[in-house]
């Protein structure tokens, strides 16, 4: 039964049992309407209410300021790897286009529109060629993938890997080197021209590396609003697990399937001034002519289109949205005014228990990432120095106790205990007991 199994999978991941039970009912006969949530129109009043409630609960949990738009999308975290490029590079181009247009008109007051457009185009083409940069902080497998997707779309010449954390750690992820070693594109205030955005993954699911706080260097904003650093964060695997100052970000995104719900819903929180009418999207014809790979991109990943249509541009999976909304509503119900800080305390408590047990037996267990960047969500460790037979023995013993999903990602091996919000304290205690018992037999 559900009560007997302790599941530590990295995603999809456990959901609170009351939510799963209510979801079963909602899938069959929602609120006694005679229809299930997989069957109703995404434009029905019922669906609209589910959407409004989910937004309101997320907004309350994370204290999302009014100048942010909450978007429910599809295509997962991976879809957002493309979406951030597709949406933020045009913001950079449009800002540059406006500046170029103002300069050209000033220098050529009598020029005709076609002539102005041509001069603007020529300047833009040069600026794209020489100055377009997308900064990536690569601290694990997922930010690496995101940087690779950016390079695939727009071309690697535009992608500045400002940090590759493997370089300082023998070719492996597991640390976040000091900020003063990062090679971010300098902002105007720093004597440069700035990048289109700076991207990082807040919690690296495969490597167990989590930023402990918002990087200080990213707070340094340019003097000119157009030269600020637009910060993008992937929070797929630590969403609503701690307090976040949303106002520091341009875009926060994450798939729902770890801390929030089932697969099929992706959340993007986007600063409104990056969307029309404040920042109009450059005309498709201009993007075509500039010939930057991947632009303009698919309309279903276009933030402006999704925002304008209240996340209902095309069919949104309402059942999946309901599950996410229910998880968030229940968290609000439990933590009330504490909001996500309540969840944060529990996440800390549970992860401290697991790390505590691992640290207690250094001859048996070794936590993979550096102590300073340990993830509260994905706890990666090796058993007996990574000895294959011993690690198999560890897994087999865990399975006997119905402690499941502890195998590390296939790309790195070892063990990984994922400690998402819905993993109960009792299950963590069972794991800790097993860690103790296994260690005592070694
Ligand atoms: N980012 C992170 C941090 C992830 O953990 C994952 C999935 N494990 C992804 C992105 C990709 O998400 P999806 O499978 O939803 O595309």
From TrEMBL:
Q: What class of enzyme is it?
A: transferase
Per the record, the pathway is:
Amino-acid biosynthesis; L-serine biosynthesis; L-serine from 3-phospho-D-glycerate: step 2/3
Which HAMAP family is this protein grouped with? SerC_aminotrans_5
Give the residue range of the signal peptide.
none
Which GO molecular-function terms appear in the entry? O-phospho-L-serine:2-oxoglutarate aminotransferase activity; pyridoxal phosphate binding
| Record carries keyword Disulfide bond | no
Pfam families from the entry?
Answer: Aminotran_5
- Record EC number: 2.6.1.52
GO cellular component, alphabetical, reads:
cytoplasm
Please give the InterPro entries that the UniProt record associates with this protein.
Answer: Aminotrans_V_dom, Pser_aminoTfrase, PyrdxlP-dep_Trfase, PyrdxlP-dep_Trfase_major, PyrdxlP-dep_Trfase_small
What name goes with this protein? phosphoserine transaminase
| Cofactors that this protein relies on | pyridoxal 5'-phosphate
Please give the biological process terms from Gene Ontology that the record holds: L-serine biosynthetic process
Family statement:
Belongs to the class-V pyridoxal-phosphate-dependent aminotransferase family. SerC subfamily.
Catalytic activity reported: 4-(phosphooxy)-L-threonine + 2-oxoglutarate = (R)-3-hydroxy-2-oxo-4-phosphooxybutanoate + L-glutamate; O-phospho-L-serine + 2-oxoglutarate = 3-phosphooxypyruvate + L-glutamate
Q: Which keywords accompany this UniProt record?
A: Amino-acid biosynthesis, Aminotransferase, Pyridoxal phosphate, Serine biosynthesis, Transferase
Please give the superkingdom of this protein's source.
Eukaryota
Decide whether keyword Transferase is in the record. Answer: yes
Where in this chain does the record put each Aminotransferase class V domain?
7-93, 162-431
- Give the originating organism: Penicillium subrubescens
